[in-house]
Amino acid sequence: MRSCRSERCRLIQGDSPPYARFHANYGAFEIWYNTHMHEKGINSRIDIITRLSVVIVTWNGDDLLNKCLSSLCKVYGDVIEIVVVDNADSKSTRSLVSSFSGVIYVASPGNPGFAGGNNIGVRQTTRPYILLLNNDTVIHGDSFSTLVEFLETHDKVGIVQGTMNVPSLGDGLDDCGVLMTPFGIQRHLHRGEPTATAKLVPRKVFAAKGAMLMFKRKVLDDLGFLFYDHFWSYYEETDFCHRARNVGWETWFVPTLPIDHICGATSSRFDGNLVWRRYFRNIIYSFYRNYRFFGRVFTLPCFVCAAFVRSPSALCGAISDLIQGRSWSSHETISLVRP
Questions:
Q1: Residue 336, Ramachandran bin (φ over 0: left; ψ between -120 and 50: alpha; else beta)
Q2: Distance separating the N- and C-terminal Cα atoms of the chain
Q3: DSSP reduced 3-state for 112
Q4: How does pLDDT run across 210-255, given as a tens digit for each residue?
Q5: Number of independent structural domains in the chain
Q6: Do 221 and 284 have their domain in common?
């Protein structure tokens, strides 16, 4: 059995923060880390990270999950709480997770998607900060204590996202947060820029990306739930950030030591038109529920026009699903009526 306790944890060893593949000056993160977190000392960073639970949802992705869990154990040992939700209820995944001592395995009923899987996972967590982490990610050092520290020192900030590198983009950045235009079009910050030379600074954003999304448990207490089960996948994290914004929480992007994100390892296995249909349906639903007058009479119609240009058939399918109250969840129907 592979035990996280038996790993020589890089965080506990106190390794310096350089990221070997990105040897160039890594902008604001390197400056902030060297003058703030590193001065706190290893014991302080361990104390910070013990307040974190990590939820990973997987679906027939054992190879990816193995790399993800191995990297977590190598860096953090048994310091963090890890919950793996298996949407396929696979014997091979159960066996893989059981080989990592201390990692919690949860089999989901059916396949509730990324949204439903994370809803199941967060109910198994016990710590004040929760990180949703994709199974197609690999970490190379302490990328998470920076985020926990930021949440602890900023009362109004409820959600944060760190830095992700996408190898398929030639070691380019994944989204560094999302801004929302008045036209309902999302602006994905810094995507594709070279990770090694990007000059990133902490900034307030509209939404964070779900592949590396950390939040305070207090946000869940205020909202009552994480994701709509019927979203299944696509736009659920942006809707979550929007709902949190409506009750006073801020979402920020905070530069961290980059983690690798393969990006789309699961969604690429689904029909493209169905993906767009779900995506459009969820956005329209979210806009209607979360926006008030201006958003409903301007932002929502603008988005619908843009969606029609992108894929008329997917948009028609999405609207049909909403009208009929059709959900991809077996136990929930869609309602546009605000509770």
A1: alpha
A2: 48
A3: coil
A4: 999 999 999 999 999 999 999 988 999 999 999 999 999 999 999 9
A5: 2
A6: no
Residues 261, 290 within the same domain: no
Calpha distance 221→130 (Å, rounded): 13
Specify the pLDDT at position 266: 53
Amino acid at 4: C
* Domain contains 334: no
110 and 130 assigned to the same domain? yes
Task: Look up the pTM and report it.
Answer: 0.86
Residue 296: inside a domain? yes
Torsion of CA 231, 235, 238, 240, to 10 degrees: 10
Q: Can you tell me whether residue 130 is helix, strand or coil?
A: strand
Question: Could you give the CA distance from residue 119 to residue 115 in angstroms, rounded to a whole number?
Answer: 6
User: pLDDT at position 68, please?
Assistant: 97
Token representation of residue 225: 């739930």
Domain that holds residue 183: 2-268
* 337 is a domain residue: no
Rounded Cα distance between 163 and 28, Å, is: 12
With a CB cutoff of 8 Å and minimum separation 6, the contacts of 11 are 42, 45, 46, 49, 75, 76, 77, 79, 141, 142, 145
Same domain, 195 and 284: no
Nearest-CA neighbor of 26 among 258, 262, 208?
258
Average of per-residue pLDDT across 284-294: 96
Closest CA to 17 of 143, 111, 112, 135: 143
Q: At 92, is the secondary structure helix, strand, or coil?
A: helix
Read off the pLDDT of residues 188-208 as tens digits, 9 standing for 90 and up: 999 999 998 888 999 999 999
Q: How far apart are CA 291 and CA 279, in angstroms?
A: 18
Task: Answer yes or no: do 196 and 106 share one domain.
Answer: yes
Would you state the structure tokens that stand for residue 293, as one six-digit string? 């007058």
Tell me: do 96 and 230 sit in the same domain.
yes
In a shared domain, residues 289 and 259: no
